[in-house]
């Protein structure tokens, strides 16, 4: 059985730990590899390599770093099929969805290609007589990224390309469930010209994570995952003096107004609720139908579409939805569906008990739809992270908006309507970080920034875009004067002013 290594200082590394974890194919339930789980010494080795590479890399002109990003972008495109196969094999999502994962990450690499412009400072001449003031952006230092299983290409690419383009060095700790795509991306970065030590990858579990959070030589940490872990990451890393951005969980609502095109809204919910088997932090898991008539029409339209979903292994032709990532995830989702029935929600489409010939041991769940869900039910309160959509009925627009704003999460939301006034009011008043108008998954493009509000984000900055550049750089303000030769003004103990 293949053993997946770390990648430190440009070469594969077995590390010093004797611990490993299993890597499964979710479509078959078969263990296909084992991955090494780093210990403190292995993290120390990666950090030492990054620290040693930092002075030379950070001193490299941004234009030269940008040229490496251009080559990296081309290599990702060249190897797209290979990367997509790795994602599908270890995550389970369809090949086309995997290619979307890669594309959205590659867009951030394209953004990082503009780093000479993005790192520009400001200059003001003569803030005082003969005195100039300017600001410059400089790298933070050694940075680390801890990424989840659900986007093994996109989320690592949200982090390390911008970080290293800004002149930092980086340690990537991807999910141990599907580490092969991130590993291959780091290999391609080296092939593009990133020097040894600038980006390193360690596989691992909590021991590796805690080593990163507490390491004295790591200056900044980025994280995407569940809210409890994001809260822990933020508190622990901040306590150890690090800059932190930690993106947490979500419970994304899509408000469907009475004037909405029900067919359009239903199609949007199919993609947003069941794409990638619901394993997206921007997945819509709650449809808030305004009025009973809207809810009845929505459930009637959705139900046959959900039953007709083409489910199977992600590398098969014409498949729309693959399995969930692990047996444990499958069991948790099925338990939540059971709890929804127990709590009194109407199970309009039941995805339990799905078995596919030849893939009986795969982690499959059929598309599931609940109606008459209320805010006190577990299926409403918990982030299910599976192919389960809940329809909640709201009496009017204000009730729907209040429901969105009451929720503890604030990642994404959407409204489907033909009313421009309602849409404008919703975008202004929704206490959510990312809002879509007739767009079900409002993930910002790479030159804008991704991030939620409330318990969906811990820290002050969002991912990628200019927020990413701000996170991975520090502002230095310089005030400069070159006095004329032979002229002395004498000493002064008063506060300096620019009069």
Describe the structure.
The protein is α/β, with parallel strands linked by helices and 499 residues long. The protein has 2 domains: 2-248 and 456-478, Aldehyde Dehydrogenase, Chain A, domain 1 (3-Layer(aba) Sandwich); 252-437, Aldehyde Dehydrogenase, Chain A, domain 2. It has 16 helices and 23 strands. The protein has helices spanning 40-59, 62-78, 80-90, 95-112, 115-118, 154-165, 180-192, 206-214, 227-239, 262-274, 292-307, 327-343, 378-381, 397-406, 420-429, 465-471; strands at residues 2-4, 6-8, 11-13, 20-25, 30-36, 122-128, 131-139, 142-146, 169-173, 199-201, 220-224, 243-247, 252-256, 284-290, 346-349, 368-371, 388-394, 409-410, 412-416, 434-437, 453-454, 457-458, 473-481. Strands 15-16-17-14-13-19-20 form a 7-stranded mixed sheet, with helices on both faces. Strands 10-9-8-11-12-22 form a 6-stranded mixed sheet, sandwiched between helices. Strands 1-5-4 form a 3-stranded mixed sheet, with helices on one face. α6 (154-165) links the parallel β8 and β9 (169-173). α2 packs antiparallel against α4 (95-112) and α10 (262-274) crosses α11 (292-307). The longest helix is centred in the N-terminal third of the chain and has 20 residues, at 40-59. The chain is globular. The N and C termini lie far apart (74 Å).
- List how many beta strands DSSP finds: 23
Q: Major sheet, described briefly?
A: 7 strands, mixed
Give the spatial strand order of the biggest sheet.
Answer: 15-16-17-14-13-19-20
Find the structural class using helix and strand composition.
alpha/beta
- What is the 3D form? globular
Range of strand content:
15-25%
CATH class of the largest domain: Alpha Beta
CATH architecture tag of the largest domain = 3-Layer(aba) Sandwich
What percent of residues adopt helix (DSSP H or I)? 25-40%
CATH superfamily of the largest domain: Aldehyde Dehydrogenase, Chain A, domain 1
Mean pLDDT: 96
